[in-house]
Amino acid sequence: MLALPSAEATQPRQLVRTGVFLFITSATMLFGGLFAAYLHLRRNVVPWPAEGSAIDEYLVNMMAGTMILSILPIEWACWALRKNLVRQAMSGLGITIGLGVAFLNLGSYTAGQAAFDAASGPYGLVVTALFMLMSLCVAVGLGMLTLTLVRATGRQQGPADTEQARVAACWWHFTVGASLFVWYAITVLK
Amino acid sequence: MLSLASKLLVAISATGAAMAVAYGFAVDERAGVILFVFLAAAGVIAAIALGGATVPDFAEPVPADAPPPIRHATSIAPPQRGSGWTAAAAAAVTLLAVGAAVTWEVAAVGAGAVVIATAGWFARVWSEHPSWTPRVRDRVSSRFLVPIGLPVASVLLALTIAFSLSRTLLAVSKNGATLAALVIGIVILGACAWVASRPRMASSGIVALAALATVSMAGMAVTGAVAGERDFPHEEEEHEPIKVVAHEVMFEESKITVAADEEVVIEFVNLDDVYHNVAVYQGEGPESKPIFNGEGFAGEDERTYRFEAPAVGTYTFVCDFHENMKGTFVVEQGE
Amino acid sequence: MTMTEARPEAAAPPPPPAPAPAVATSIFSTSDHKRLGLAFLFGALGFLAVGTIVGMVMRAELTQEGVSLVGDDYRRLFGLHATVSAMLFLSPAWIGVATHVVPLQIGAGRLAFPRLHAFALWLFVLGGATTVVAYLIEPPEGFGLSSATPMVAPPGGANEATGLFVAGLAVVAVAMVLAAVDLVVTILKLRPPGLTLRRMPMFSWATLVTSLVTLLATPVFLAGLMLLYLDQRFGGTLFSPDDAGGQAIWQHTLWIFGRPEIYLLALPGLGAACDIVATHARKPLISRDAARAGLTLFALLSFGAWAAGRGVADSLVLPTYSPLTALVVAPVGLLVLVWLGTLVRARLNPHVSLLFVGGFVLLCGFGALQAIIAGLVGVAGNAWTVGHLHTVAFGAPTLLLVASLYHWAPKLFGRPLSAGLGRLVFLGLFGGFLLMGLGSYLLGYDGAPAGVKDFAFTENGSTFGALAAVGGALLAVGILALLLDVVRTAADVRPSDTPDDPYGGMTLEWATSSPPPPQSFDGVPEVRSAEPLFDLAAADAGSGPVSAPGGGGSSG
Fold first, then answer.
1. Which of A158, B102, C82, C323 lies deepest, with the highest CB count within 10 Å?
2. Domain C34-537 adopts which CATH fold?
3. Which pTM was predicted?
4. A53 min Cα distance to partner chain C (Å)
5. Subunits adjacent to chain A (3 or more Cβ pairs under 8 Å)
6. Is B23 helix (H, G, I), strand (E, B) or coil?
7. Homologous superfamily (CATH) for B242-332
């Protein structure tokens, strides 16, 4: 075996972060596809929203508010991890997870209360699709947050390594942004 | 300073934006414009994300008197070892997708499998962290895996076995179900006896056997769920099935009367070669709330529809494919 | 000057990181990019076999007027053949080759996320199997994705096979996106210092661009699939023929994904052809910038031809559709010029992979000619399209894929593929695509529809149909020979005595043994230009061997 000199050990950094950003780009296009469908149908299908398809705006506003609120605790958690305040980080992550679960719960209640469903026509179909995708993104985000919480508890995330927490935060912020877009489409644009 | 990759993405963004404008002017159609706008936005996000590549995109200038190039040892850390959890996770996700297409029970099993596979994968990643020592492993095992994980896993396993076998046995005929149960029992007994008879068994062998068993169960569950249950004789057969005939794009019956709180059985005969079905709606027609939509089919053929009669009242039955085919569907108080 | 003399003066370098243990792991738990790449490749070839068999049955059916070999299942087979060939063969095959070759070409020797890649591999295999199984259970309702009017859901929901079909495709689409993400991060983050993106080999650059477009375009397809799934499962009415809004949405979904996808089937091949030509011409491309520009322009144009094709009723046709499609001649032409310029005055190594590259150029030219004729004559949307698909959309890129297999066989399989069989494969594939294309084109000019089992042949129609059938048979022979050669070579477990660098190449994949060791590289040459091996060889020639030339780097 030749005694080879080694080059400067360039440990690749931020692999996961770059990967998640690219995945966020893909998810943006996924939402884009559904939005394009929504906006296209909105212009071409009369009446819009369909008859009897009123959605309870109060509930949808609550859902949006929940997501906006969740920005703070996740950032707090990331800050706390950098400062090695594990208890605070766990609290922050826990609150974010709780808000996410609340969002899903409220979403399922809203869907149950809605007077339309996937079969009731184009409006129902595309709104159902948007809700489904939202919930899927939130579910993935909850999974990432849970794993981060477990790692923080196990001291695998801390001042030396906050990669997983940052990645989960990035995905969560994307989810919040997407949910605001959906909220805008459903309540403001109608 | 933008890396070349970022510049590439900016080019894609610019193309998207240009296409959005061009498309908007040329065709003026929403969906396409929005898609291109999103393409431009996504390109910008990616460009920003890739803007700071850690590997410098410009080459260090090599001085003329530099020594000739030689081989270096690879400077990049070797990859983590692979894990079987990746294949398991892929199987779980596929099962979830299949379940979404077939029945919700399979989807629920799939969702559970996804959770398990994610946990397993994460456990693997966790165990590769530098802070993982054998002492930590023992602690986790004794405090968590054995007291909680083992019972939960056993219960889940039992439920899954019950579900898979039940789907299969319900789908085959009565005698077939007896035979299948016997065969499955013999196979399980034989496999366990074989494993027990061997003095040592490599873990890979056990894993292979477990994987085979899991795949078989999943396959049985899905096949059984797709095939559906066999027909079971119903107790109340005293009501004659209602016969409805569609001929020359018309129903031959104009009124159907059934009793409330009972199962409605409609024998639908389609004498045309176009698609017909029987569907019941609350109000005047298909714009109102649907009670039941029968599977559409082309004639000449006949199908039997079964559904629960709705509350007492007057409804409409229609053909979903042809507006003119309508009749009254009355639900009366039963005896 | 030997290395041992230089040692004492230099500061003690940090010990190199230990290579990954060379433990044989099973295919289910490997993180070795080479095995993952081969798995993708073999999965794709497996689906190719399925699609080919189905295609042959269909062609036999079509040839005999009035004969019903398969009865009502023809529609089912049409959909199966289309789906398998479109989504389950070329894209995953390129991902497989890229997974194997790109980490070697960029000197990384590993993927960024090997486990994610393994996850993507199994998603592809299982999702593809689900789609095929869906067809075997029952034909999914409707005419399949290729129709501009997608499946119409009967009220109450479609049959389960349709849902399975959609679910399988969705899983495969997710797999493609994940693999693309991994390849992009690998290329961007794991290059050794000195290997800038500008110095990267063309196949790696093409893979980068392809993966970026994939992860931008595929999600829109997923969105459409989601809507289709909801529509089918719950009996909505969005995608019915009466609903123009739904039609438009589906067309957009299909085309913002489908049009780039068609281009992306060829793009990695174009990059591979650049590397193939340069390697066998034994000199660098005459203009790397032009080649890179051509590849990039090709990718950008993939977003440009934006609409369903002419001839589809009520389709959205952007007035710029034809000019933008025609514009693709520019980058491809540029690349062909670069290749020709490189081949001029080169000490050519006549390798069978060059045959396939030449075949690609000829098929593309043939297809372009037909496109011009069709434009003049005014034919579209019938059997002509079948011909065009089989020559330009699938035939030409397939030739490039086979070229890559023959070129990189020493790395992929450890030893070269048989040159003799290679020529047979070329005859079969090129001749097959050409004849089948010609037959279908002529049928199209004759007015024959596509996708219909029996139709009244005109006088010439049966001749053209027979021509296409002969083409199909040739194609089958070629594919069979290819599969035979690949399987035979891959299964050969004897130690290989193939040299590291059988062609005298210039890029980093030739700096390791054939096949590469489990850790892919024992030592990576320092990169100071786009031809690191040429620099290394020049250094060896100039100052005496620093490391053993050519055969160095292989472990004992």
1. B102
2. Cytochrome C Oxidase; Chain A (1.20.210)
3. 0.81
4. 15
5. B, C
6. helix
7. Cupredoxins -  blue copper proteins (2.60.40.420)
